[in-house]
Amino acid sequence: MNIPSQRTSIPTNCSFRIEDAEDPWKFDDLKFDLIHGRALLSCFRSPKTVIASAFQALAPGGYLELRDPIFPFKYASPPPENCALVKWNNMIVEASTKAGRPWTNGAHYKKWMEQIGFVDIVERKEYAPMSSWAKGQRNKVLSVWVQRNILMGLEGLSMALFTRVLGMEKEEVNELLVGVRADIENTKIHCYSEGRHHLQLIFDGSFAVCSLKND
Fold it and tell me: Molecular function (GO) terms listed (predicted)?
């Protein structure tokens, strides 16, 4: 990919580097006050190794912040039998695990961070409904964003894993996704996504974290 490593219209104290986070981190003597990552659950074969690299790259008192969804999705009430959304979610977990990049890794971040040596770890659990079934104005608005986001990305999330890993034909995947989209929009299916926000300190210290709460 021909991606420029340096933009021209940026502040003088800002620079871009394109690296593979799973390779050894080579920043010479540079140490960071904050390293932020999100939506990384499909990226790495060994997220723990990447977290360890971040630990070594932080300055004393520095922070690592991670945000990722937790798979599989959850339900406030039992979903119907033969629910396409449940089937899709189980297949995503199966395929990503076979591919060596399990989408269930987000649930282990806190444990890995403790093992690596981070202290004062804060873990916030946040919940987002897939449709407008949940009560409260905040949940209604949030569900619009979440639903639109997943509907727009559904084919991209599914096609490579299902065809290359599970051996499905493209037509089979598209047929499955018709039912998945219908289930996502069905307010009788009380599906929600759990997200986890982690903030960790490399050495002892204190800090405050602000996070939106459910109504």
Answer: methyltransferase activity
